[in-house]
Amino acid sequence: IDSTAGWFPSSDAPGADDDASGSASVLEILRVLAYSDYVPKKSIEFHSYAAEEMGLLGSADIAGRYKRANAQVHVMMQMDMNGWNPRDANVIALVTNGVTPAVNVFVRKVIAAYCEWPPRDFFLRGGSSDHASWLRNGYRVCFPFEIQINPNIHTPRDTLDKLDLRLSHQHMKMA
Predict the structure, then answer these.
(1) Would you say 131 and 99 are in contact if contact means Cβ atoms under 8 Å apart?
(2) Which of 82, 121, 126, 143 sees the fewest Cβ atoms within 10 Å?
(3) Which run of H or E residues covers position 61?
């Protein structure tokens, strides 16, 4: 819940989208898998990182540790903001820069099979997220996202009433 973590010490940004939407999605995916009969063929890890907005400090530390340990990671999927659905765009954005294109090809197939909303390419300008730490350490990454940067993040307007939980639901189905 990066926007409340001290990046702007005087801010009262509640962080509903940045990043409670992604964090809540990760926890819900974990809950669904924990209560299902699903047995993965490979291990699945769920991570939350500190200090993303301070320079990806938490993810850089963990990804660096994995690399130094020669840990095998099949793919890292970044679940950051996934609740802003401007003008009812009803798409799952796939960040196309700073990711592994082959993973996006696979994720597009998953979206087509499991989601009601289609994927759409999205070039992320002026920022990044924790997936970048993993890519810098040689791991394959993907970053499903919102089709437009939410103008309410880091402000007191980043509240639940501005989000479309149908989009978060589509992200969870995809994951």
Answers:
(1) yes
(2) 126
(3) helix 57-68
What's phi and psi for 76, nearest 5 deg? Answer: -110, 120
State residue 158 phi and psi, 5-degree precision. Answer: -80, 75
Query: What angle, 0 to 180 degrees and rounded to 10, lies between the N-to-C axes of helices 101-114 and 165-174?
Result: 110
Q: How far is CA 101 from CA 43, 90, 104, 128, 140, in A?
A: 23, 22, 5, 16, 9
Q: What is the pLDDT of residues 9-40, one digit of tens each?
A: 556 889 999 989 999 999 999 999 999 999 99
- Strand 144-145 with 141-142, pairing: unpaired
Hey, what amino acid is at 25?
A: S
> Looking up tokens 């939350």, which residue turns up?
48
Say if residue 49's pLDDT is above 80: yes
d(CA 175, CA 170): 9
